[in-house]
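Box 3.1 A note on notation
Throughout this textbook, protein chains are presented in two layers. The first layer is the amino acid sequence; the second is a token string describing backbone geometry. Keep the layers aligned when reading.
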Amino acid sequence: MRILFLGDIVGENALNCITKNIAAIKKENNINIVLANAENVCNGKGLNKKEYIELQKAGISALSMGNHTYSKNNIFEFINDANLVKPANMPLAPGKNYLTFKYNTQTITLISLLGRIFTNQIVDCPFKTLDNLLNEIKSDYIIVDFHAEATSEKQAFAYYFKDRVDAIIGTHTHVQTADERLIGERTLYITDVGMCGPYNSVIGENIDLILDRFLTGVYKPMQVAAGPIILNGVILDLDKKQIRRFNKLYNE
């Protein structure tokens, strides 16, 4: 079983790049299933139904979300029925705490959780939440998207759940880390998978706008940068217990 997990999709150009190239990427890398984090698709914050449908048509089996899950009101119209998971440690919010789907005869479960360090999110403990979920989930493979800021929280989370899930993929910072590894005998891990978004940017945003924020202290609304698109991800070989980073730059 080979799964491609794509990092946070930032903006419409990144979405278009994925839909245009995903078939070739799957063929070149012998990918069975594609998963992705979709919380930044719509102008950098949130996900609308239109973009969700485009990702589904492109062949992405399931989507995870994060702190911008509910940034677009449109999501309340489809989140309960969609092939996506909201952060499970927001138990009273609309959406699925986990999603289990089949590939041939095997089942794969996708879970999303939010970290609590530096994120200003009022959420339940991600450690206790996943502990409870694992008591009820019966699946051949379990993939966790841990959407968190602090590298220490992500690493601690991975060691706590080693050999209890098949992969823990860190998202949120949009900067890919170089620490992909097997933890224990079962759990594939990376602190952050990176993003699918503008290469010449500051975590996907317009460089001049971000510099102006730092230099003046004045906040201006987010603006997704233009230019070449970098696709960051990881390829998980769940049978061989191997993980490798995926990176491809598109000048389109």
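The radius of gyration is 17 Å. Helices lie at 12-28, 49-57, 126-134, 151-160, 207-216.
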